[in-house]
Write a structure and sequence with these properties.
163 residues; Ubiquitin Ligase Nedd4, Chain: W; Nucleoside Triphosphate Pyrophosphohydrolase; 2 domains; 6-stranded mixed sheet; 3-stranded antiparallel sheet; 3 helices; 22% helix; 37% strand; elongated
Length: 163
């Protein structure tokens, strides 16, 4: 790991109340890890009895909808922007569920249940297919052992409490 300011190789140094933290001897500063933040969305209809899954153009697996939080944007603004961009649907309501670090892409995922307006879907070029499923079918379609499965399982549990 290297310093983003000067390019020097970082060493680990003890930092009180933090433990071992990367340190730049040239800049004489601790360099705390930085990573991207994204939202993961379990998209439901108004009745909350159907879940919308997506297939990206370059992937065969069904996944949850997701998008990166842009600089200066909060998660609450990212959700309707991403849903509008990918599906052309207005968001009615979003409820925060949980977060999880996704090491594969070095991103902190913030998961929400998102209720969308019952309207025709207009897919953008990122999405090859979108499919409304029962909660049980959604759980069967999502790839096992993934962050998406973790979020979907928690969301289905929450949705069943309401139905």
């Amino acid at each position: 790991m290297y310093c983003k300011e000067c390019g020097q190789k970082l060493s680990l140094r003890f930092c009180e109340n933090e433990g071992l933290v990367p340190y730049c001897g040239q800049c004489e500063t601790y360099v705390f890890p930085q990573f991207s933040v994204a939202v993961s969305m379990v998209v439901t209809n108004r009745a909350q009895d159907k879940i919308l899954l997506a297939k990206h153009a370059e992937d065969d697996d069904f996944i949850l909808f997701a998008g990166y939080v842009r600089k200066g944007e909060n998660a609450e603004k990212t959700i309707p922007r991403e849903i509008k961009e990918e599906l052309g649907l207005p968001v009615v309501k979003a409820k925060y569920m949980s977060s999880r670090y996704h090491a594969t892409k070095d991103v902190l995922m913030l998961n929400f249940i998102v209720i969308v307006e019952d309207a025709p879907i207009k897919l953008n070029e990122e999405i090859a297919e979108a499919k409304w499923c029962t909660p049980e079918d959604a759980l069967a379609l999502i790839r096992k052992g993934t962050t998406a499965e973790f979020f979907l399982t928690n969301a289905v549990r929450e949705l069943k409490r309401k139905i």
